[in-house]
Amino acid sequence: MSNPVVAERYALALFQVGKEQNATEKMDEELRAIKKVLVQNPGFISLLQSPKLSVEEKRNVILQSFPKVSAPVINTFMLLADRHREDIMVEVAEAYINYLNEERGIAEAVVYSVRPLTADESKAISSVFAPKVGKLTLNIENIVNPDMLGGIKVRIGNRIFDGSLRGKLERLGRQLIS
Length: 178
Description:
With 178 residues, the chain is α+β, with helices and mostly antiparallel strands. It has two domains: 3-101, Peroxidase, domain 1 (Orthogonal Bundle); 106-177, no CATH class. The protein has helices at residues 3-20, 24-40, 42-49, 55-65, 71-82, 89-104, 119-129, 165-177, and strands spanning 106-113, 137-144, 152-156, 159-162. The N and C termini lie far apart (48 Å). The mean pLDDT is 90.
């Protein structure tokens, strides 16, 4: 079975437990934090995949690394370690976040801009682009890109809305050539 399918199954089980315990929000925050740690520290997963560590040592590393995480989340990650599935920990967190977002009508968006967006600008972007992808609102991650001349570029899933000045100039240049 491929990793995305396996990650989806673990995430769905975790999501169902979260709904039963009315803890989906808390688990969402925890999984976002864990995902951030795992992405910023790829050596952590490499450590867990080491054949020199026993399963019990892997469990202890997970417990010590995330001491304040709820039982269902920590148990899921320890189960992944037990089954030598450490490589899908980030994918499980992402899949859980996607399940919760789907239920809430939220889409994850990355907005590239020349400067950091204000809260009002983020709200305006969300209100304009969320209906375009059939969602109620957007969860925006702002990436500052000083190479952009101006404007913004919005990526929601596999869709890109390019309103940057550089993008407009490139489209104008293509029109003039053709």
